[in-house]
Amino acid sequence: MKRINLFSCKRLWALLLLSYLWCVPRAAGQGTTSFTVCPLNVDGLPTSIMGITLNADGGGADGATAIGNYLAGKQYDVLAFSEDFNYNSELMAPLSDLYNSGTYRGGLTTSGLSVDNIQFKTDGLNLLCKKGLSLSNETWAAWNQCYGKFTNGADELITKGYRSYTVAFNDSVVVDFYILHMDAEVDSEDIAARASQWQQLCDVIRASSNRRPKIVMGDTNSRYTRDDILGLFVNPINATGNYVVRDAWIELCKQGSYPPLGSDALMVGQLGYEQGEIVDKVFYINPTDGIQLEPTSIHFDETYTLGDHLPVAVTFTVASGKYIPTAPEQWWVGEEITYSGQPFYIYNVGSHFFIHNSNTPSLTNISQVPVWNFWGTTSGSISNSSDYRLKMNKVLSWNTAVETGSGATTFNFVKSTTSSGAYKFTKSGRLFNLAIEDAGFKYTAAQTQGTWNDWLLISPEQKEAYEEYVKAFCAANRYADFDLPSALASALTSLLSMPANYVACQGADGITQQLTSLVTEIESWIGQQSCEDVTSLLQNPSFEDGIKLGDNQVEGWTVDQGVSEAFSSGVVDGADGASVRNFSPHDGLYVFNTWGGTPQSGYFFCRQNVDLAPGCYRLEATVASDGGNRVYLEFGNRIFTSVTLTDRTIGEKVEAMVCWPGGEARIGLMSPTWFEADNFKLYQIAGLTESLASSKNASLTLIGTVSDTETRQSPSVQRIYSVRGEQLLQFQKGIHLVKMSDGSLRKVLVK
């Protein structure tokens, strides 16, 4: 007889309740949370220009029309084009009624070319999203470094770079897209150019502060075996602790294992498209708090013959949270100068950039910029503790800059009439301004008033208040899809839908405190549910069944094979050397230990796959680290943030709650830096499982064995999933979970 443990769940402040998938993409707001993206090089170069052969075997206008017709039939939700040059009208003819489009920047033409500097002012990039979706915030940037004018791919003939967009799938699911075309060829100079491009894109994403999930896709011309994508892009973003970067191909086809840099190329001709590596890639970048994207399928259309790049279609679902917190640009409220020396962050209303220690405005993340002191209340200078100051003066012409050293400008601080709560910094009738010039941002001395010379002054207290609001919002959002009692559900929906800013979140009646109080009520209700201890489903949950078996091996667990030094379990009493730390509380004699080496994936991890029945589960573990490090709990490819760890001798509990559709789930821990762990526990929560099933009228029905060609009677098949909850494009051999048109769920075995 199974043992039922009744316990209080008062410590569930760290729980993360995810979508109860039940094999169906969960609705968020009024729209879908399942969408398919496809990057495609559309082969739009002309055959030749100026006597230079560019694309001798290209499809031309007829080929572009054929590609457009092909894509119109596929109906992918988001398309990312590269090499969209001379045949855009033919390409778009079948697509213009179906898709919203970004800016077409023209083809390759001799008009306007300079003999001294032959370069075509077009990037060949474009993003399309289906009608009904919102497309906004288009930006473009050229790569800082390219190589090869008339050789090595002729990358410098074209203004190559990347674009970014924001696509709103509904009011709650908003995703940033970065599309790109990187340097071609394989000489050392080409690899160095791509390295610069990966670094450039990494810096931009690291500076982002909007907490939206992001997708990066396009023709990278890169392979893991020859380009250090991990070291230049994936690992640095992961190391911030703000985002987690993953490659859809690595996750879905390579079981999360990255090909080692310097190893033999994984050729498609030998290994096929799932195990071989191609240069067209789809990365997804999830914030560690908030909405999560999860790839459920990847499809390489090997029947495609219209170009030299295959379409790569990746389907994503939203894995947690109906709602996203108010973005920083909607949160900030301008504050007034009340005393000399007052500290503020300085935020530009028009561009959303903060002023930092550089003449190149580029940062939107308030955590990455300095505090400035205003020396005066109606006029004075502006400087920071690093001895940088704002300058605007005229010698022969006006010079506006952020500089270090002497010569600070005395500005008048004038309240703006164009933006609420903003100031303008003026001198001699000129305005300290931010502008776009030569495809870049710079400071200027403007004469015309507008939002680009409106500056909000944001106190450190307001910054801290935003962090508290996001923390409270994410804690509440974890319960957004749960079948709560009506009063709790109504209050939660109202608060999560409410626009927030600094003023609205202040005080005992503010949104932040209301969210915190509501989470306490929800967790109190959850604490009344009964739990069954199913830790026995885990292998070696307390690391007591075996100590170090060999380098990078732990009994029952998979660990990062890219770590070259001790990465194993060890005894806590120090008998295994200084690499093992003693933390409390721990269970038994052994703990899991990560120490030394460099993780290949950017994360140290220990994980295992566990076969679970459908239901709601609570997972917990104890972790230790120091230096402000963070350790993340994994459950079913979802990531849950831990508390910040400051003392290696004190173990902290990390917890998560997940409603799982049944089948194999990944369970474990990961961190961009060292950590120790012990005492995994797994509980199935009976009350939550029952309420979930009844609320969704779900029924899992075995309808027998069918062949892969057998037609199914009414009701019709609506969506097909693997037993892990991954959406499939078609039936394969094995067991499937199938959503029917009448709302029922069925289990189907295909022989």
**Number of helical stretches of at least 4 residues:** 11
* Lateral strand order in the biggest sheet: 24-23-22-21-18-17-16-25
Q: How many beta strands in the DSSP annotation?
A: 43
What is the rounded Rg? Answer: 28 Å
Fold and architecture overview:
The chain is an alpha+beta fold and 751 residues long. The chain is 17% helix and 33% strand. It has 11 helices and 43 strands. It has an 8-stranded antiparallel beta sheet with strand order 24-23-22-21-18-17-16-25. Strands 1, 26, 28, 29, 31, 36 and 38 form a 7-stranded antiparallel beta sheet that branches. The protein has a 6-stranded mixed beta sheet with strand order 6-7-5-2-15-14. Helix 3 (188-206) packs parallel to helix 4 (229-239) and helix 9 runs antiparallel to helix 10 (511-526). The longest helix has 19 residues, at 188-206. The radius of gyration is 28 Å and the shape is globular. The model is unreliable at 1-32, 564-569, 571-579 and 689-714 (pLDDT under 50).
Brief descriptors of the model:
751 residues; alpha+beta; 8-stranded antiparallel β-sheet; 7-stranded antiparallel β-sheet; 17% helix; globular; disordered N terminus
Secondary structure elements and their pairing?
Layout: E1 4-5, E2 34-41, E3 48-49, E4 52-53, H1 60-74, E5 78-82, H2 88-92, E6 99-101, E7 126-130, E8 134-142, E9 161-168, E10 174-181, H3 188-206, E11 214-219, H4 229-239, E12 243-247, H5 248-253, H6 268-275, E13 280-287, E14 292-300, E15 312-320, H7 328-331, E16 342-348, E17 372-375, E18 379-384, E19 388-394, E20 398-404, E21 411-415, E22 423-427, E23 430-437, E24 440-446, E25 455-458, H8 460-477, H9 486-496, H10 511-526, E26 531-533, E27 558-559, E28 567-571, E29 590-594, E30 604-612, E31 615-624, E32 629-630, E33 632-635, E34 638-640, E35 644-645, E36 652-660, E37 663-671, E38 676-685, H11 686-696, E39 700-706, E40 717-721, E41 727-728, E42 734-740, E43 745-750
Parallel strand pairs: 2-5, 10-11, 39-43
Antiparallel strand pairs: 1-26, 2-15, 3-4, 5-7, 6-7, 8-9, 9-10, 11-13, 12-13, 14-15, 16-17, 16-25, 17-18, 18-21, 19-20, 21-22, 22-23, 23-24, 26-38, 27-30, 28-29, 29-38, 30-37, 31-36, 31-38, 32-35, 33-34, 33-37, 40-41, 40-42, 42-43
